């Protein structure tokens, strides 16, 4: 946090975080304010620099840190901006520097305070990890799997984790170690084993919801062409379901490079071979992306990614929950990455954990955290509700989506939002409000305030507008 903590950690207190990606790193940052020691257990070996690692396969594709997420990260790590800028990370004014073709047409561009970093996921994660490692009491255990939870005598709570080396540790070390902790946080992502661990402790499996629009990516890094000028720093050509299922983005990276990601829904996956990748780019609603990359030099192979389903574990609905065990990030709620919500929701989850820990301190529960874990899961469910509805509501527009069907309210919301987007193409004030909602700075109810509602219901020319493939 940017302000000093209002308490000292309990003597000898220890917290364990499962997973060393963004959600785990941010949870570790929060816990460093509340515990003497924080141990982050990661199955991978961390690279020495900003390099790809297998535990974050989506790092090969475009990432967008929403403005709300950037603000929280800077709150957690006050020197983060300086470190990223020193590493060459571009800053984008997402209203002025991004050329955005959505189903309503090209959106207006104007100067705003909606600024965020446009850098690779590997640079952002490495920088955060380096900053976290400077905190006293924070340590990392690499190359190890967490294989189970340590229960208390009656299985009502968790007292730590069982950890097994992946064969890269000292051969003389015991194969399985026990790490005892006053709080365990599962931030291991979509591969979380919490459902199995809870069942092993005698808890029922939580209800799960999966909404899958069968969207896939193909991405490649290019050198930004010299001697070629564009009136944009970033380019986004959106899909328009159900008719147009293909889209693509170009975002700048450190090192004067571009990350180019093509996407297709309803199993219309972008190809990963050279000729078909370019043909897919040429088929988008605007030729700008295709023309840009044909003038650029490829720097990487083409990588595909198709694990994009929305996945929600309803842990908050269980009748009982083990003490001292929290699940957050993608381990509890994973979104279709097309909407760019993942890292920001992870930051909000860490913020929620911090708020609940501080609330217990204020109530004088210095060493007694009974009920804390269950309260955190309930608050996380509330935090996740809005981005979940936004992501799944949009995914219901695609014809092949599985896991549910749009109800009457969803269809009405689609109708309303279609008209809001049409207004965005003509009204800067409406687009400004929409962008603030997109970046999680304002609630979706902002788009239903009377001034916008009146325009949606009365602006006749909306009926005649159509998607323009114009340049």
Describe this structure in words.
The chain has 471 residues and is of the alpha+beta class. The protein folds into three domains: 10-63 and 124-210 and 311-392, 3-Layer(bba) Sandwich (FAD/NAD(P)-binding domain); 214-305, Alpha-Beta Plaits (2-Layer Sandwich), CATH 3.30.70.2450; 408-464, no CATH class. 31% of the residues lie in helices and 22% in strands. The protein is built from twelve helices and 21 strands. The chain has helices at residues 22-31, 67-76, 80-86, 121-133, 194-200, 274-282, 288-294, 342-362, 372-395, 408-424, 428-438, 450-458; strands spanning 10-18, 35-41, 91-93, 98-102, 105-106, 115-117, 138-141, 144-151, 158-165, 176-180, 183-186, 208-211, 216-223, 234-237, 246-253, 257-264, 297-298, 303-305, 310-313, 325-327, 333-334. Strand 14 and strand 15 form a beta hairpin. Helix 1 packs parallel to helix 8. The longest helix is centred in the C-terminal third of the chain and has 24 residues, at 372-395. The two termini are 45 Å apart. Mean pLDDT is 91; it is low at 1-12 and 466-471.
What are the defining features of this structure?
Alpha-Beta Plaits, 471 residues, alpha+beta, five-stranded parallel sheet, single chain, disordered N terminus, FAD/NAD(P)-binding domain
State the gist of this model.
The chain has 471 residues and is α+β, with helices and mostly antiparallel strands.
Topology:
Elements: E1 10-18, H1 22-31, E2 35-41, H2 67-76, H3 80-86, E3 91-93, E4 98-102, E5 105-106, E6 115-117, H4 121-133, E7 138-141, E8 144-151, E9 158-165, E10 176-180, E11 183-186, H5 194-200, E12 208-211, E13 216-223, E14 234-237, E15 246-253, E16 257-264, H6 274-282, H7 288-294, E17 297-298, E18 303-305, E19 310-313, E20 325-327, E21 333-334, H8 342-362, H9 372-395, H10 408-424, H11 428-438, H12 450-458
Helix pairs in contact: 1-4, 1-8, 2-8, 6-7, 8-9, 10-11
